[in-house]
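Here is a typical sample entry:
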Amino acid sequence: MFVGRKKELDIIKKAIESRSKAAILVYGRRRIGKTSLILEALKDYTGVKIVFTATPDEISGNMRNLSLVTSEALNEPWIEFSDPRKYFQYLSKRDENITLVIDEYQDFRGNNKAEAVLVDALIRDFIDYSKDNINVIISGSAVRVLENLIIDNSNPLFMRFSTIINLKELNYLEASNFYKNTPIMEKIAYYAVFGGLPNILSQIIPEKGIEGNIEDLILAEEGFARYYVESVIDKEISPINNGEIIIKRIGNGKKHYSQIESSISDEKKRRQLSKILKELTETHLIEKMNPINKPDDKKKTFYFISSNLIRFYMTYVIGAQITGSKRAYFEKYISPSLNTFISYRFEDIAKQYFSQLDREDVIAIGTYWYDDRIKKTNGEFDIALETLDGYEIYEVKYYEKPLPEVLMREEIEKATRLEGLSVSNFGMIASSGFEANELPIRQISGKEIYKE
């Protein structure tokens, strides 16, 4: 089942259907849906589709397989090209409308730096000198490798792509199509735990509930989601020196640099922290953010794991030896704090909701740092929208029952007593709605957030 990605589909379709040739780069983490997106975009393409997925093999092995795929697509006898230069010269002389897809491009170019740059140069020449009837789509999951093609001005492919798509996980609304008929609270929980990876979401069985799916897909040794996370750890995190240690710290609530640093006893590892965080950020496995009103305050910078599924695994599962009952493990180690875990992810859902509204008066969306001089405390409002009229502030509550009016009044009082806060609007977001009240604030329920 293909879900969502309307914007990305439109971009690719428009590019390959244009009268001029297109060079498209699609990159993103494993299992994010790159190949499915490309195949979906090519469904109605009337030209020749050469779709090749490279493997971690010698260039000769990949060229042999690419030659076979090409001959089948062109419906011609097999001509084996061991030399990629001759292959691209052959293809560039064809008169048919052709779209060539090289998936997992990092494997096609190989790990040898000199050979990889040579392959990049051949692709560059193919893009530059082929006729307008030929499109090229490069795709890959080695984020740092693929991103380097577009930011390193010494790379042959620098400035060669007419279209670049950094594919992210499905948003909360797109992801809910995999558990469409479940209650709002469960929709929020599924996204909080499993995130927006289509391949993972397709394994969810809503009838089992959130507990059953966590047990089967994450806690079970052979669990599909568990296998995915452990492969990410093995292929993307472990190669970063001490990367696993740092991302585990972030998963367990150490979000500010000082908190992460103080949790590390080894002096050598502390000295390497900046480098490790930079490398993890380059993989897009973690991201860093500042409060919307403190964009340059390094002390307020915080780090978070970008994937809900990886965050859940790092919080509850990594290093665990589950040799007995999965249900017992869930009840002891996960159940007591699961609602708190979900509540923080619900804040992310709310931010996505505002992003999708596409309001022309909104400059930025984030959190808001406040200093309460009366109570001599500080903290953050869950969501802040910087608008042309000031800040809109929203507090987010993940509650099983409608939010009580008394709690709403407490939040209003906190927001209105702060000095120097230009609030154009204050509102609350509650997963299960609100008790009847006449408070003059915007009230957004989970039902409204999930309204299509």
Q: What stands out?
A: Residues 359-449 form a domain with the Trna Endonuclease; Chain: A, domain 1 fold (CATH 3.40.1350.10).
